[in-house]
Amino acid sequence: MKQDSGIYKTDTYSIMGLLVNTVATTAALFVPLSAVKIAQQDGWMTMLIAMAGTVYLVYVVYRLGKLYSDKSFIEYLPLIIGKAGGKTLGLAYILFLFYLTSSVIREAVALFFGTGVFRLTPEFVIPLFLIVATTYAVAAGFEVICRVLSIYWIFISIVLTAFYLLALPYMDFASLLPVGEASISTLLKSTLIPQAYLGELFILAMLFPYIRTARTVLIAGNIAIVIIVFHMMFIIISMVTILGVDTPARSLYAPFFLADIIQPIGIKALLVSIWVLALWGKIVVFQFILTDGISKYLHLKQYQSIIIPVAILLLVFSFTFYQNNTDVLESIPKTFPGVALFFEYLIPTLLLIIALIKSKIGNSLK
């Protein structure tokens, strides 16, 4: 739906599908590995703890959006902490988005080669074709992105649901016993990576001007959290009950190892294909947010003029930040949680506190 301003405003269903696709895609790879490695068979419990923190994040984004309606995160930073501070922090967030998007591109490359689907293809080819495909979508605009992903996520959900149903007969739920063996401190430790990936729902702050109402943000965000958390829980439970604890605790690609066990033969290729679609969708969303954020930072009327330069920089950074696929898999679990918790949770919380104080002071002076 387009408003009088000419900006496309998406609805609850579309933004929910966009969030589920964006967050769950890479979380399904890194979260189970971390959760099972630390909490063993109790790894599924970490998602419930992470869920509480993410509900809080969505509420923070919702309150900030209500205070500064029709403005994105980059636009209202100067209104909260001043022009100089807002520009500095805005630049920091742009660099964070470059890091985030480039990391997802390299995660996609690691997935292709790690699952054995591509063996002889030159490593540079995959990110190049990915960037071409995502840049085309970004140029088409946010309305097209939303409509495509609203179809994608239903198709992906149907295939994954069928996969889970096929996995049920192979599950040995005795592998989850004893329940509650992990201590509270262990569970909290295992929550860091899930919390970081779920914190990607912070993108709601960047997409606020493209969402119909603040209430839509709150409803869609919380529904997406529930879907993502239970999706992650089922992946962890299925891996532990079929593969045991050791394999999921060692391998990033344990979800795809399930496909080697479950009939019919060939389902692994279908599963990887589904992840390709999901990764494309995630990169598209991040690339759009980054491009749109830069245009607002530079006060450009439209972002079309910087689409190609941003795409080129993403391709360059995806190989600059990481030396190879092994470096991707080792570096991200170490660096991403700290960076994500800082930019996704801490800074927005401090900004909300400052904004509320300024609002109360302003009201008292009236």
Task: Please supply descriptive tags for the structure shown above.
366 residues; mainly alpha; 15 helices; globular; Amino acid/polyamine transporter I
Summarize the structure.
This protein is mainly alpha-helical and 366 residues long. Helices cover 77% and strands 0% of the residues.
Topology, number of strands = 0
In CATH, the architecture is: Up-down Bundle
Kindly identify the CATH topology: Amino acid/polyamine transporter I
Helix content: over 70%
Instruction: Indicate the structural class.
Output: mainly alpha
Largest sheet: none
Strand content: under 5%
Assembly state: single chain
SS element count, helices: 15
Q: What is the CATH homologous superfamily assignment?
A: Amino acid/polyamine transporter I
Calculate the terminal CA-CA distance, rounded to whole Å. Answer: 37 Å
Q: What's the number of structural domains?
A: 1
Order of H and E elements? HHHHHHHHHHHHHHH
CATH class: Mainly Alpha
Give the overall shape, derived from the CA principal axes.
globular
Uncertain residue ranges: none
Gyration radius, rounded: 20 Å
Mean pLDDT: 89
